[in-house]
Amino acid sequence: MFVDVIASVNEARSDDFIHKTVIVVDVLRATSTIVTALAHGCSAVVPVETVHQAKQLQEPGDLLGGERYCKKIAGFDYGNSPFEYTGSECSGRRVILTTTNGTRAIQKSQKASRVLAGSMLNAEACAKTAFALNRDIAILCAGTQDDFCLEDGLCAGLLLHHLERLGERTGMNDLGLAMKLAFESASGQIEQILLACASGKKLIKLAQKDDVLYCAQMNRFDLVPVFQDQRMIVF
Amino acid sequence: MFVDVIASVNEARSDDFIHKTVIVVDVLRATSTIVTALAHGCSAVVPVETVHQAKQLQEPGDLLGGERYCKKIAGFDYGNSPFEYTGSECSGRRVILTTTNGTRAIQKSQKASRVLAGSMLNAEACAKTAFALNRDIAILCAGTQDDFCLEDGLCAGLLLHHLERLGERTGMNDLGLAMKLAFESASGQIEQILLACASGKKLIKLAQKDDVLYCAQMNRFDLVPVFQDQRMIVF
């Protein structure tokens, strides 16, 4: 099994994903929010690229969620904070979610055999599912504005850490080797490091430090979102 | 002082280098070879992009060096192995060097205030020189065929490690943070890791394992190549 880690959506080539399992990672905050919403009983999360698409897809009972520049969109039910998706009002309902980088990463992965959503919160479960699918894996770090993000890279490192424990031999590209090494240095201080990286600093400024601390938790949920029929559901 | 680490030549935007010090890193093997040649008495190394340019620039007494696909170019005096540049026949002579990624990285950095050549071999000296220049720094990892290379990333981490020891506060981009963490994990096993990364494996196949081990040595030379008048000379 070979694992490629891709630094950002900008670096992703759709054709490279054919026959592979893609794990999309957007720790702050799209994939953490998708995991959280499904863990709290949402029936499905539909990731879309634009506000217009979100409104068009909405059916009675659906919730609209999403952000632009880390802020809730006017007229939407929720923003992109995972805490907004933990209440009983989400249970059994579909969420139409539009985010900038995470959604683009999912869209870019459509040619893959399977697309999973990974985060710190569900890394071990995600690694187990990807391993069981027994195909080469691409871990697509969503990044921010086409740039590499540390939190996604460290999550790739955590996924590789779990994948290596499952299989005797996991080959990986050079960025994967680098992220595994970085995660090994960082594992005891993930919270502090996520607070110090670019996205973390931005969220602190927006008074959303609690989101960063929440998303830094490793392996809190034993749940893997899979993309099927244009929506994320529990695998 | 802020330090940006750039993953490959492909990711570099020339205009971002204005007013900055750029450290070009191509551990396997261009910048390691440039450092070695200057340390053994070469008067200058002229990096050029094509074989044709190299032949056109050659004057009596000049040596031609370079590689394509890790192999010596037909009709050239030397390849790109640092060991070829340690003999007395190099002393006092100019080397015209054409390599694929390292040379492109140097060319791409022309708008910088200063362009230095960094490698494991001279990382501490390079960090000290860049720090003394007192400008923001971009560490440009040359990479391979527009992809990130672990050996260049770890060298960026080593440079950041030394820069942090020089200044109280060094800000860095997320890739810089990741490379510093990766270097901290790797520092005790740089040789093994460089033998396991993509470029290392390729050089082993070409029976050039000794080059990898040589280029993995940290801070062997107290010498910094600087790009001036289209050539690399000792700073």
TrEMBL record, chains A, B:
UniProt key word Mitochondrion: no
Required co-factors: Mg(2+)
Gene Ontology MF terms in the entry: 2-phosphosulfolactate phosphatase activity; magnesium ion binding; sulfopyruvate decarboxylase activity
Reactions accelerated catalytically: (2R)-O-phospho-3-sulfolactate + H2O = (2R)-3-sulfolactate + phosphate
EC category: hydrolase
Enzyme Commission number: 3.1.3.71
Keywords attached to this entry: Hydrolase, Magnesium
Family: Belongs to the ComB family.
Name assigned to this protein: Probable 2-phosphosulfolactate phosphatase
Gene designation per UniProt: comB
